[in-house]
Amino acid sequence: MAELSVEHLLGIKYLNENDIQLIFETADHFKEVINRSIKKVPSLRDITIANIFFENSTRTKLSFELAEKRLSADVINFSAGQSSVKKGETLIDTVNNILSMKVDMVVMRHPNPGAGIFLSKHVNASIVNAGDGAHEHPTQALLDSYSIREKLGDVAGKNVVIVGDILHSRVALSNIFALKLQGANVKVCGPKTLMPKHIESLGVTVETDLRKALNWCDVANMLRIQNERLDISYFPTTREYTQQFGVNKKLLNSLDKEIVIMHPGPINRGVEITSDVADSKQSIILNQVENGVAIRMAVIYLLASKIK
């Protein structure tokens, strides 16, 4: 059986193209499973997974939990907001306490970049990064690419623009790594103040004119403004941002071609996209949500098969 080249899913930058294809082929199989009347498989009956979230998350946490339960794993949920972490317990202590309960895999979201990598060196369990600060969010990038493959047949050669707050977005970074690995052409579009300094070194081009970017692309992935990470003002007002970088139906209809609209959620309706765009037939936002469960099932299943 083909297997992943890694023991953990810490970031897209540690994967190769074969890993991504293997995850997608496995997700194809699980997508059939979750569309059957009996949506569970007994694949991971003897595996225990701990979901440890040091940052609030609704969608990602639910998606992972559903994926784990569909695979019949035993699941422990740990929300650090309500825990002894607030009393000063260290990350390693927290996780070691959980591992002493004989946990095989840890799915972790943490505000500090590199937290998953740090953890993988200190604890004896398979680590899945569910988002580390503004660094990476690998399963989101995988489900985004998988959704493009499903809609357009392939990712290679496609033109994808990522629009919005690139500076604070772990989704943007993971997406750039994943798309480039699969041979897509990538542009980023947004206010100059929200562009990382050396973004071109990742092999992407910067476009500050939204209309030009949309006319160029096959797919537009619209990111939200991460207000919780904005410590200073990066643009004058939300209204001004929307005028320059928001997508509405009138703008979509005025393009030379029909493009695919994506969004990692949660959507700020009326800011980065209007409701009539989010709910239009060009949007694959709900497909992304469904595909998220299949992709996370695939990742967990493939990593679990490497647990000795």
Question: Would you spell out the secondary-structure blueprint of this structure?
Answer:
Elements: H1 17-34, E1 48-53, H2 59-70, E2 74-79, H3 91-99, E3 105-110, H4 115-122, E4 126-132, H5 138-152, E5 159-163, H6 170-181, E6 185-189, E7 205-207, H7 210-216, E8 219-222, H8 238-245, H9 249-253, E9 260-262, H10 275-278, H11 285-304
Parallel strand pairs: 1-2, 1-3, 3-4, 5-6, 5-8, 6-7, 8-9
Helix pairs in contact: 1-11, 2-11, 5-6, 5-11
Task: Put the structure in a nutshell.
The protein folds into 2 domains: 12-137 and 289-304, 3-Layer(aba) Sandwich (Rossmann fold), CATH 3.40.50.1370; 138-286, Aspartate/ornithine carbamoyltransferase (Rossmann fold, 3-Layer(aba) Sandwich), CATH 3.40.50. Helices cover 38% and strands 15% of the residues.
Keywords:
globular; Rossmann fold; alpha/beta; 4-stranded parallel beta sheet; 2 domains; 308 residues; 5-stranded parallel beta sheet
Biggest beta-sheet profile: 5 strands, parallel
Element string (H = helix, E = strand): HEHEHEHEHEHEEHEHHEHH
Assembly state of the chains shown:
single chain
The neighbouring-strand order within the major sheet is 7-6-5-8-9
Secondary-structure class: alpha/beta
Strands, total number: 9
The Rg value, from CA coordinates, equals 19 Å
The CATH topology of the largest domain, please? Rossmann fold
CATH superfamily of the largest domain: Aspartate/ornithine carbamoyltransferase
